[in-house]
Each structure stands twice: as structure tokens, then as C-alpha cells.
Amino acid sequence: IFSQEIDLKVPEESNIVWFGEVHGTATNNHVAYSFMKQMAESNEGLDYFLIEASYVTELLLNKYLETGSDSALQNLMDSYKGSIGYTVEKRQFYKDIYQLNQSLQPEDRYRAVCLDVENAPVKSHRHIAKEVQKYAPIDSELLISKIGESKTWDELVEYYAELNNEVESNNEAYQSLLGEQYNELAYLIRNVHYVMLAYNSGNWDQTRDSLIYENFKVRTKEFEFEKNRSFAFWGWTHTSQSTLSNELDFIASRIKSNRHDIVQHTYYGIYLKSAFLFSGFEAPGIIRWMFKKEKGEYRIAKRMMNSNKIIFSISGSKYLKKIA
How many Å apart are CA 90 and CA 26, to the nearest integer? Predict the structure, then answer.
């Protein structure tokens, strides 16, 4: 894609239109918005907006798209703290989508659907614990009643494995306890367990996307992606419809292999010139690189004066170094 202003003709038979981005590139959000605006204004229209984020983010984003309130937007952005998505550009992107929705008829407005595992499991755990406290009595014999107890990381991993197993094997008791919140909380619990499986698998990419595809199968029952049109804004590897050279199968490839009734089209970002974003969570590593402790004092490291190394690694940094 050679311009921020997109002019494209999306095939009418498309069920999912992917925009594969290189994470951390400043222009991504504007390009994605241009896609969404043009497709929303076309005769074909769109039904869903699929983003590379967790279900907790989906809840917060849809709350903002429904209300447009500053507090809802702030809650949404707070969920991105500590990630490369915590930027002014991302905030403006969501504000633009809200404004776009307001220009559309209610039945034509975007609804966000997030298929990723819970990539911020501690934050997701806190969200689940807060919701569970409304439903699960302290004296319940079910494992979920212990969700508010303090736990180390290893204890949390073990707890969610056991909790997910109990929810699946004793679903009648959990449905009775959680009522109309059962499906949502059971899905969240499963995805906290999923991300921990991926972390500990030794093959993050393959395991993660296999679990994302499991989420896709679950959500397809609700949203019927094969009958509707969605715009998907994900990292470029996830949008590849073929197995990559390292034998990795990402979500789009898995859909193509298993759901022949779902037509996909993928567009990739080609960046000739674009700013890279710097997120606050990268600062500690960069500060450690810039300064070195000598004789009890921190001084500017000699490598700052005598090195051409890129001080942090992001997609495109080798190219930036080459042309610098």
C-alpha cells in the first residue's frame, strides 16, 4: 500500500478482508481507518471489525463505540498500557471509528470482535475476579470462589488450568452460579488458560494461532462469518493465507484450510517511508543501554559514543540503520 489514502475495490464475495500491518508503524491506524471508511460507504458495507486483541479489549472497545464517552475511551486505552498499542495514534483511530459509526445507520455500524488469547493475563485475571465477585459466594465449593486469593505466577498458571477444566466438566453448576454471565466468563477463563499454554509451549506463534483458530470456531457460531463481511486489522504474518517457510500456520491460513465457505482477501502494508512509534514500555531497556553503572555511579555508556548499533529492536530497524 503506497499511500495513506486507500482507493480499492474489494471483491464482492469477500467474507474477511485482512490488512496485514508491520506493528509499530505510525501510518497503520490511518491506513486501516481509510479501509474501513471506504468499505463502510460502499454498497457492500461491512458487519464486523476483527482486531488482534483479547476479549477484554473487545468488551471495552464496544462499550466505547456504544457510548462515545471519554471515560470509556480511557478505560480502553488503559488496557493497552505496557504494549506497543498504547499510542496517541491508536487513541485517534478509535475516535475516528466512533465518528464513522455515528455517520452510519445503527444496523450498519461496526461491532468489534477480538479473537486473540488474553495477551495480558494478569489484567484479564483482575477483570474476571471483579466480575466473579458479583456471582460466586465465598463459601462456594467451586474453585472459582478462590479467584480473589493472592497467587504467584506459577500458582496462577496452575489455577487457570484447573479452573478451566472444572468449568468445562461441571458446566451445569457454573451456569447456575454465573447465570447470563456464564458464556462470557467461561470464554475469558479459557483464554487466560490459552495464553498460559502458549507461553509455556516453546512454540509461541504456532500454539497461539492454533488457539486463536479455536476462538474463531466458537465465535463463528455467533457471528456467522461465512455469511457476513468483516475487516480484519492484524500483524501481517497472521494474515498470510499460506503456510510460511518456517512451517507456521497462522489464523488466515487455518481458515483457508478448514473453512472453504469463507472467502478471504489479504492486503499487506508496504512501507516506503513512515515513522516508527516508541512506546513507554521499551524505555527501561533503552535507558539500561544508554547508561552503565561504574564505581557505584551511572554514567553515559561508552558504546553511546562509539557504536552504530540500534538501541532497540523493532521491525524495520535494520532498514532505518542502513539509510541513516
Answer: 9
